[in-house]
Amino acid sequence: MTKIHPVVMPKWGLAMAEGTVVEWHIVEGSEVGAGDDLLDIETTKITNVVESSHAGLLRRQVAAEGATLPVGALLAVMAEAEVPDAEIDAFIADFNANFEVAAAEAEATAPEPQIIDAGGVAINLLRMGKADGPPIVLIHGFGGDLNNWMFNQPMLAERHSVYALDLPGHGRSSKDVGAGDLTMLSTTLLAALDTLGIEAAHLAGHSLGGAISMQAALDNPARAASLTLVASAGLGPDIDMDYIEGFVRAGRRKEMKQVLQALFADPGLVSRDMVEELLKYKRLDGVDRALTAISGAVFAGGRQTGVLGHRLHELGIPMQVIWGAEDQIIPAAHAREVPATVKAHVLQGAGHMVHMEKAGEVNALIEDLIAR
Amino acid sequence: MSNKSFRQAINEALAQEMRRDPAVIVMGEDNAGGLGAPGEDDAWGGVLGVTKGLMPEFGRERVLDTPISESAFIGAAVGAAATGLRPVAELMFVDFMGVCFDQIFNQAGKFKYMFGGKAVTPLVVRTMFGAGFRAASQHSQCLYPIFTHIPGLKVVIPSSPYEAKGLMIQAIRDDDPVIFLEHKVMYDDEEEVPDEPYTIPFGEANLTREGGDVTIVAFGRMVQFSNQVADKLEKEGISCTVVDPRTTSPLDTDTILECVADTGRLVVVDEANPRCNMATDISALVAQEAFGALKAPIKMVTPPHTPVPFSPQLEDLYIPTPEKIEAAVRAVAGA
Q1: Is the distance from CB of A36 to CB of A51 less than 8 angstroms?
Q2: Residue A2 — pLDDT band, cuts 50, 70, 90?
C-alpha cells in the first residue's frame, strides 16, 4: 500500500448521494486487518458496515459519528506508524481542498446503466470495473434487481470487470417474460453475454438467479468460468411460497414491509426507501403479469420445479454455494444438496439476502473462487 | 427513467393511455389550439401546455378544442363517459366549477347509484388549483373540499411529478368520475419519473417522511413545504412523519390514524379555505377515533377565511408557508 491511504464514503447503489456515520468500530490508533469492520454507514435505504480494504494503522478518524457526508468524502486516514502527524494533517487538508473537483469528476465518470438487446429482449445492465480476463456477471433473484448487488459490485470491480443485470420482468428490463421458465431466463442471460461479446464469465447468482446461472452453465458449459450460488434456487424443492405469493400480492407499504422483513436476519434493515422502491417497481405495467408467470413456472404447486444441483458434477469449473444460516425463503439445508467438489459456506447472522448482510465475506469468497 | 417535469409527467400519462386505449380522448379549451383559425396547429396544449403534442399524434378526433362554455363541454364529457368513451376533460381553473357543477355532482357522481350499479362514468376532470400565481381570487382557489363532499366522486391531488403520472393513469383506468387537481405553481417541478406506464392506487397514503414525534398531514404543494420542515427539524431532534393522502376521496383514514397513534401529535396543512376543509375533516376524524393517543391539541395550518388576495404581498401572507408549518410543529412538539 501507499504510505497514506484514505477511507472514503462508499457509493452503494446508483441513487446514493450521501451517508451518515452511525458508529465507529475501531478506535483511532488501532491496528486494522484487511476486511475488518471500520464503521457503520446509514443511507436512506439501508445501514451497512464499511470494511477496511487494507491492513494498517487507523491514524485518524476524520468523520464524527452522526455526520452526514457526500459519497467520496474522507472518513478516515490509514498510514504506517512512521508517517509523521504533520504529513497526515497535510494529506487531509489536501484531500478536502481537492474534494469538490474530485467528486465532480467521479460523478461525471460514474458508471451508467445501459439497455442492450438480448435475443429480442431489452435487458438493463450496469458495468463496473475494467480489468482483463473473464468478467463477473451478477444475477439477482425473484423480484430483485441489479441494485441488490450494491455492496458487492463496486468492491469486486476494484479488481475485475463486473456486470450486474436486470432479469426479464425485473428492474428496467423488458416486462415480457414469455413462458417465464428457467429456459427463457437462462437463454436470455446467454443472449446478453453474446451481445456483450463475453465468451466466458464468472457467474454469481442469487436465489432464482442461481438456478438461472446453473441452467445456463449446464446448457453451455464453455460460457461459465466459475459458479457462485448464493442462497440459490435449483438445489432442492423447498421454497417459502408465503413469501413469493406475499411479494406478488403486496401493493401497500405495510404489507410490502412485512413481506420484505423475511429476507433478512435483521428485519430492521428494511427501510422506507427500500419498500418505496419495490412498490414503484411493482406499480409498473406488466410487472404483475411477469411475476405471476415466472412464479407459476418455476415454483409451480409451491415447489421448485427446476432442481439441478445433482447435475453440477457435469461441470469441471470452480463452484461454491453460499448461504445465510437464518434464511427463511430457501432453507440453508439446501447447501448440502451439491456434489462434494462444490464447497458450501453457511454464514451465521444472515438471512436470504446474505450478499447484503454479509457482503464482505461473500465478496471475499467470490474473489477466492475466481483466484483458483 | 429520466427527470421529468410535473407537466411532462401528466402529458406522458395522457399520451401512453391514448396509445393503449382508443376510447381515451382529451377535450378542453385550446387543448390543441388553432382550431378553425389560420396559423399554427397545436399552438397551445391548454393554457399551460399540458396537452401539447397530443393533437399531432392522435388527431383532432381525439383531442378536442371546445368552446369557452364549461357547462356544455363538461356535460358533453359526462355523456361521452356514460356512453363508452374515457374522456379527460380540462376545466382550465377549478374556480370555474360553478358553471358546470350540476353536470359533475348531480349527474356524473350519481349515475352508478341511480342506475343500480349498471352505469359506469369513467370521466377524468383535470383542473388547475391553488394560490401563488398572482392570478387573483377567481383563479387561485383550492375548492377540493367541495368535490370531496360529494359521494360518487374520486378526488386526487398529486404532490410531485412521479405521483402525477401514476395517479393520472390510475384516474383514466378508473370507472368512476375522478377530479384530478393540478397545483398551478408545480408544473415546472422536476424529479425522476419512469418512462413506462404505472399506476398508483387511490386511497393509499404515501409517507414522504417517517418520524416518531409529530404527524403532519398535507396535500399537494403543502406536502413539499411539510417535507422541508421535517428535514429542518429532524436536525434539531424533532422527527416528523409526513402523510400525503394522495386522494381526499377515498381517504386513507387507517394510515392517518396509525401515524397519529405512533406520534400522538398532529398538524394538518391545507391550502383550502379553513371552514369545512380537509384540515377540519381530518382533525374531526382523529379527535373521534384516536383521542386517547393525542398528547397535544391538534393544530391546523390553513389560510384565513377570505378570498385569495390579488396584492402579491397579501397573497404571500395568505398561503400557508414552511415557517407557519414549522411554528405549528414546534408548538405541538413542545406540548
Answers
A1: yes
A2: low
Q: Please, what is the end-to-end C-alpha distance for chain A in angstroms?
A: 24
**Which is nearest to A206 in space by CA: A304, A158, A114, A138?**
A138
Judge if A91 and A21 occupy the same domain: yes
- Name every chain B residue with its beta carbon within 8 A of the beta carbon of A286: 196
Which amino acid, A41? I
- Of B203, B204, B222, B239, the C-alpha closest to B160 is B222
Shared domain check, A207 and A59: no
Element (H, E) at B103: none
Task: Please say if the pLDDT value at position B335 is more than 70.
Answer: no
What is the DSSP-derived secondary structure letter of residue A284?
A: B
> Does the structure show a pLDDT above 60 at A1?
no
CB proximity list for B105: less than 8 A, separation 6 or greater:
B147, B150, B152, B153
| Nearest residue, CB atoms, B198 vs list A172, A272, A285 | A285
Q: The domain that contains A32 carries what CATH number?
A: 2.40.50.100
Domains assigned to chain B: 2-193 (3.40.50.970), 206-334 (3.40.50.920)
CA distances from A211 to A204, A217, A258, B157 (A): 10, 10, 26, 44
State how far the Cα of A348 lies from the Cα of A351, in Å rounded to an integer: 9
Using CA coordinates, name the residue in chain A closest to B162. Answer: A280
Q: Which of residues 253-272 of A touch B (CB under 8 A)?
A: 253, 272
- Show the domain range for A267: 114-371
Instruction: Note whether ipTM > 0.95 here.
Output: no
pLDDT per residue over B180-233, tens digit each? 999 999 999 999 999 999 999 999 999 999 999 999 999 999 999 999 999 999
Mean pLDDT for the stretch of residues B128-140: 95
Please state, in angstroms and rounded to a whole number, the distance separating the CA atoms of residues B171 and B163: 12
**Residue A103: what pLDDT?**
85
Q: In whole angstroms, give the CA distance from residue B71 to residue A184.
A: 55
